[in-house]
Amino acid sequence: xxxxxxxxxxxxxxxxxxxxxxxxxxxxxxxxxxxxxxxxxxxxxxxxxxxxxxxxxxxxxxxxxxxxxxxxxxxxxxxxxxxxxxxxxxxxxxxxxxxxxxxxxxxxxxxxxxxxxxxxxxxxxxxxxxxxxxxxxxxxxx
Length: 142
What we know:
Layout: E1 4-8, E2 16-18, E3 27-34, E4 39-44, E5 46-49, E6 52-54, E7 67-75, E8 90-97, H1 99-105, E9 122-123, E10 126-127
Parallel strand pairs: 1-8
Antiparallel strand pairs: 2-6, 3-4, 3-7, 5-6, 7-8, 9-10
């Protein structure tokens, strides 16, 4: 995954491993820990299709902690004793999204993907005038 993904406390932690070459003969395992090292759970992953591995067991949920790390190790045997030399270990990081922040960000509009719609009326504590159109350009305090 790379980077940090946000997740709400109590939501299922999305534990997904993708092997680019689509190999379905391996036996990945995910170890999930809180930022202080406390074990959340260990999950064996099953091949779904096209190199995507997920868990068919009960989902793990985001605890009341700021960060959760999901460390993936790929094994060649179903007993998880011999690590694969073909794949490196990888990790996903999830940050707890606070309800107060989520409530505000859910109010934001994105008419165009990844571009926040903004309606600015003040700049440096001064009222802005105009609509931003060619006939009514933005201008500062009169």
